[in-house]
Design a protein that fits this description.
Length: 406
């Protein structure tokens, strides 16, 4: 991707909503050069694509914006993974890969993790509550989700920071422009994470436990024999994908939710006065500024969508964030309103690829809002810093930094 086109992509990603509005108002589908894809922006059309996985394959769901340099790829060659994962699979293979994740994130497993999540949320807030100011992304939003999913998977808490850091670096390597030295450093962090995942997998093969890691191993590599190198690569790929989805999306959702509540002080005050509204606030925040803006799909045959004929092999960007601002589904779609009647949004996807961790994400956001409204009702955006800038990405949309005061 040339420099000018990447600059336009950066602009689109930081604020995609005007592009979505134009696309919804345009008859048929719109081809977006910055995404190298047809943009699917209307709620009904997004749902149609998600209902037809046989026509719209997920094989290209994680196509990177940036191809790592040869030097970075050489570093990655010393790691593990590189296999298709649940979000890039279709049909029976997708169901096979998804099943252990669904079991591992069952309502009972999520419920069992909530006391720990509440304890960690309180401790993280305790660490800065007396300071009168905080940068929330680094002090809280990037920490709680990783600690919670790390516990569910079965990591030693000492390994969680490196695993979380590796997940952020994997996203940065594939979706941000870095110089060669920066790419190599990011790749080294990713490989460090992958070796931690491989160590956990081999340890659990020898000494099984009862965590999500065991669900994956038992499902994808049944038996008790020594894991082959190919099995280790496959298991690391799935565990890495699960972890990144399990913490980066929730981190983004926490940051964006707090941002929009504080940009609407009366709604923040209402939430502090009436905490029973917190679940509704979670849903409105997820709808209004969706953390996972969308995924790519590729057509498996010639299909017609919204009156536009798409040949086989056409790339489409299925924009959940655009569908969630569609006035045909959500009245006053561009207004942030935690009192609105709940509608069926697409923040966690829809159909066979809907997010199996959606309840865990919702619960962590609920816990976050409960502790912040109770402990820091005077919370506000800090006036000592420049305007909040959103990260240029379509998969984990959130503030780059969120400076708060009270």
């Amino acid at each position: 991707m040339d420099h000018e086109l990447h600059g336009r992509l950066d602009e689109l990603q930081r604020d995609p909503y005007p592009h979505y509005t134009r696309a919804r108002r345009t008859e048929g589908l719109v081809q977006v050069p910055e995404l190298d894809a047809w943009l699917v922006a209307r709620d009904a059309d997004v749902r149609e694509v998600l209902r037809r996985p046989e026509d719209f394959s997920s094989a290209n769901a994680l196509t990177p914006d940036v191809l790592p340099s040869p030097a970075a790829l050489a570093v990655l060659g010393g790691g593990f993974g590189g296999r298709p994962v649940v979000v890039t699979s279709d049909g029976a293979r997708h169901q096979e890969l998804r099943a252990p994740i669904v079991r591992g994130l069952s309502p009972a497993r999520v419920a069992a993790a909530l006391p720990y999540a509440a304890e960690r949320a309180a401790a993280l807030v305790d660490a800065f509550a007396k300071d009168g100011h905080v940068e929330l992304m680094s002090a809280y939003a990037r920490r709680l989700p990783g600690e919670v999913i790390g516990r569910i998977v079965g990591f030693d808490p000492e390994d969680v920071p490196a695993v979380v850091h590796g997940g952020h670096r994997a996203e940065e390597l594939l979706f941000r422009r870095l110089d060669e030295d920066g790419q190599v450093a990011a790749a080294q962090d990713v490989v460090t994470m992958q070796h931690i995942l491989d160590a956990l997998i081999r340890e659990r093969r020898d000494r099984p436990g009862a965590d999500l890691a065991d669900e994956l191993i038992d499902s994808l590599a049944p038996g008790d024999g020594e894991l082959t190198l190919d099995q280790r690569h496959e298991l690391v790929a799935h565990l890495q994908n699960l972890l990144i989805a399990g913490h980066l999306t929730t981190t983004a959702l926490i940051g964006s939710t707090v941002l929009h509540l504080l940009r609407h002080p009366r709604q923040w005050e209402l939430l502090c006065a009436e905490p029973d509204r917190i679940p509704a606030a979670v849903e409105e925040a997820a709808r209004y500024d969706t953390a996972l803006q969308g995924f790519r799909r590729v057509t498996t045959r010639t299909v017609t969508l919204a009156g536009t004929e798409l040949p086989a092999g056409s790339s489409v960007f299925v924009a959940f964030g655009a569908a969630n601002r569609d006035g045909a589904r959500h009245p006053r779609p561009d207004e942030f309103d935690i009192t609105r009647a709940s509608g069926r949004h697409l923040a966690f996807g829809f159909g066979v690829h809907s997010c199996p961790g959606s309840q865990l994400a919702r619960e962590q956001l609920r816990i976050t809002l409960e502790v912040l409204t109770r402990r820091l009702p005077g919370l506000r955006l800090s006036g000592d810093h420049s305007p909040v800038i959103m990260r240029p990405t379509m998969i984990h949309r959130s503030p780059e930094a969120l400076h708060l005061a009270w």
